[in-house]
Amino acid sequence: MPSQVTLTVTEGRFKGQEIIFTERTTCSIGRGDDCNLQLLDLMKQQAKILSIQQALLSAI
């Protein structure tokens, strides 16, 4: 049986959206332009609360 990893958004305007990984892959998460899943920094006028690359997921 093929493996599946599901990433579910639990807060914000994309609440309930799911990203499904069905193959071996990596996914970078953060506010950087090169991230696969880019998070918006809602506090742009204040100190950055998110890293350019906040997390790296690896589905194997």
Pattern of helices and strands: EEEEE
Unreliable sequence segments? none
- What fraction strand? 35-45%
Give a quick account of the main beta sheet: strands, pairing sense, barrel closure. 3 strands, mixed
- State the helical fraction: under 10%
Instruction: Tell the overall outline.
Output: flat
Terminal-residue CA separation: 14 Å
Q: Overall pLDDT, averaged?
A: 78
Secondary-structure-derived class = mainly beta
CA radius of gyration is: 13 Å
Q: What is the tally of helical segments?
A: 0
How many β-strand runs? 5
What does this structure look like?
This protein is mainly beta and 60 residues long. The protein has a domain at 25-60. 0% of the residues lie in helices and 35% in strands. It is built from no helices and five strands. The protein has strands at residues 5-8, 18-21, 25-30, 37-38, 55-59. The strands form two sheets. It has a three-stranded mixed β-sheet, with no helix packed on it. The protein starts with a strand and ends with a strand. InterPro entries: SMAD_FHA_dom_sf.
